[in-house]
Amino acid sequence: MARPEQVLLLEPQHELKFRGPFSDVVTTNLKLSNPTDRNVCFKVKTTAPRRYCVRPNSGILDAGTSINVSVMLQPFDYDPNEKSKHKFMVQSVLAPPDMTDMEGVWKEAKPDELMDSKLRCVFDMPVENEKTHDMESNKMMSSSLLKSDSSTLPPKSMSSTFDDGEVKKIMEECKRLQMEAQRLREENKQIREDDGLRMRKSNVMSSQHTSIGMKKDEGLSVRTMALIVLFFVVGVIVGNLVL
Known about the structure:
- By secondary structure, this protein is an alpha+beta fold.
- Helix content is 46%, strand content 23%.
- It contains five helices and nine strands; from the N terminus they run ββββββββαβαααα.
- It has helices spanning 102-108, 128-151, 155-159, 164-201, 206-242; strands at residues 9-11, 15-19, 26-33, 40-46, 52-55, 58-61, 66-73, 87-94, 115-124.
- A five-stranded mixed sheet has the order 2-9-8-4-6, covered by helices on one side.
- Helix 4 runs antiparallel to helix 5.
- The longest helix is centred in the last third of the chain and has 38 residues, at 164-201.
- The radius of gyration is 38 Å and the shape is elongated.
- The termini are far apart.
- Residues 129-134 and 149-162 have low confidence and may be disordered.
C-alpha cells in the first residue's frame, strides 16, 4: 500500500546545499511548515548521522505553524571528485488529539500512516577564480593604503636611510632620554615634598616657599616637555624605519 502524501511543506523541497570551505562547521536551514488543522509529529533522519548535527531533530509541529531546523555539517577534507551520497528524510505522522507521549505515537503508528520526504545533500565549494579575485582585491586595497600613508610622510623621511650603527645610537639616545625624564619627574616630586614640609614648619614663609616652588616646577616642566617632544620625534623616526 502506498504511503500517504507528505502534509508538511519543506523549504527547500529537494536538496540541502552546503557552501564551503568545509574546514569549519557549515550550517544550512530547513523550514518545516504545517498548513493543516492537525498537530503533526516529525523526525529528521540522515544516512550519515556522524557527519551532521540536526537541531531540533524531532518534535511536534502545531497546526498552522512552522519551524526552522538547523542542519550542521561537521568539518571534513573536501574532495571535488567525490560526489556526495548523503541524504535526509523528513518523516511525519498526524498526532492523535489525546496524545501524551510522542515516542509512543511513533511506536504505535502504522506504516500506512507514516509520511516522508527525501532531500539530497549538495556541497558547493567557491570557485577558485572567486578566491583569486578576492585575494587580488585585498592586495590592491593594501597597496593603496600603503601608498596613501607614504604620501603623507615628509620627503626627508622617505629618502633617509639608516645603517645598524645609527639605529643603535638612536635607540641608546631614546633610552637615555627616558632615564632623564624619569630623573626629572623624581626631582620634581622631591621638590614638591620639600616645599610641603617647609610650608608646615612656617606659615609666615609659606607664600615665599610656594612662589619659589612654582618657579622650580615651571623650569622643570619646560625641561620635561622639551625631552618628551624630543623623545616623540625620535620615536617617529624609529617607527618609520621599522615600517
